Amino acid sequence: MWVLAGIVVIAGGFLLRFNPLLVIIVSALVTGFAAGLDPVRIVATFGHAFNETRYVTAIYMVLPVIGLLERRGLQARARTLVAGFRGATAGRLLTGYLLFRQVTAALGLTSVAGPAQTVRPLVAPMAEAAAERQGGAPEDAERVKAMAAATDTVGLFFGEDIFLAVGSILLMKGVLEGYGIMLEPFQLSIWAIPTAIAAFVIHGSRLWWLDRRLSREGRGAR
Amino acid sequence: MIGLNLVYAVAGIAFAIFALLSVRDRRFANAAFYALITLSFLFGDMLGDVANGVLVLALVGIAASGQMRRAEAVAPAEDRHGAKVFVPALVIPAVALLGTLAFKQVPALVDPKQATLVALTLGTVIALVLCGILLRARAAEPFVAGRGLIDDIGWVAVMPQMLASLGAVFALAGVGEVVGELIGAVIPAGSVIGGVLAYALGMALFTIVMGNAFAAFPVMAAAVGVPILIRQMGADPAVVAAVGMLAGFCGTLMTPMAANFNLLPAALLGLRDKYAVIRAQVPTALPLLAFNILLLYGMIA
């Protein structure tokens, strides 16, 4: 039971706004001590896992390209482009991106898009430009950008499990095999389809509402 | 064979240049932070577990010192290259896509498990070269600009990796088994809806706590999924596993513990509220969680 103290440390530490990295390491130490591990073993376990998961942080290698393009007018250009499409709204643009993200993720292409690769340089500025044109208030910019990031994540999560060789499918197969239940990845991935459709409908409706809200504000302002 | 070694070499070099540029500008805390990340990328496999752990402690120390500084504001750029500026931006996803498909054909040359990451790395390098040719950028220019972006992200950059590592300590300490026992104990015997609710909400809640549905799945499968839903109620294992995992993903949308999906984009987009992305996701996550519960219930009852 005492090993749950680490979870209390995490929740309390985040709530009290201590530095999250500090909270994480303290939680690891508290959990380890509660389980009777010695400090060196805890630090070594943490270090080993940190070294094994470096691929998570490797994505920042794209920052020099993105940074340069931004200083050379990438976002300004993205706005100009959207301004040229007459029917483009923030909601329609993000709905199109949601579909693109779900379909590419379902084909196993999860790293093709993402917050660093596509959202910051392309999707967010385009959606923001469209929202401005719809007459959204300046404070909506933050909401639209957050929605762009949310759309990327929803598209990824509820697309990737349709692909056969994704990590979560292999994990499920492996865990169930431990109980003597044999499944083919195909049987699991087919059951990701209903939720993928539901995700598109639910998030798509919210994007439609976003459009309505933006144009209502636009009319109110005039 | 080409695999993560190439990915880590390129990432390590990028962080090494960020560190050098920070030293030049006398931003020593930032420089030390990036230098440690460089060390981890380039030499992490030679360090050993304890030294890697000490490296993490040093990263945390620098972050907690409050000495890391944000980037100086840059005037917004004007549109002076026309559509040409899109080319390098689109080259990265295009090469990642085509490269993934191509590299799977040559498993002897490129590690098939890492095909996308290798292709993404290749796309980044090609885009960098194109920046020089098409936009006439000087060699240091992209790194100066990229340093500005990483300075704005700050120590949040390593938070996803830190949380993943915390998961390893939780696993070793047996946190999952304890939570599983607690949840397993509250289900009324023989109740399908009780079992489904405990399993799906347990997946979502445990994922919110751990930040990762992968950590929640083995626990909830052991506590509820296999013994109660599959063995006792005769549910199809494929449905229980697949829909349960997706219920967990709904939890991932709602938690700051999943920093790479929820906090990193907010930092990357420079949002004032660092929880803005989570707030934008919750109204999608909750109805979707309800859908998963109904789907699971409908397939069992």
From TrEMBL, chain A:
Protein's UniProt keywords contain Cell division: no
Natural source organism: Sphingomonas zeae
Keyword flag Iron: no
Keywords associated with the record: Membrane, Transmembrane, Transmembrane helix
Membrane-spanning intervals of the chain: 7-33, 53-69, 153-176, 188-209
Protein name: DUF969 domain-containing protein
Signal peptide (residue range): none
Coiled coil: none
From TrEMBL, chain B:
Record carries keyword Membrane: yes
Keywords noted in UniProt: Membrane, Transmembrane, Transmembrane helix
Segments crossing the lipid bilayer: 6-23, 35-65, 85-103, 115-135, 155-175, 182-202, 208-230, 237-258, 278-300
Record's protein name: DUF979 domain-containing protein
Source organism phylogeny: Bacteria, Pseudomonadati, Pseudomonadota, Alphaproteobacteria, Sphingomonadales
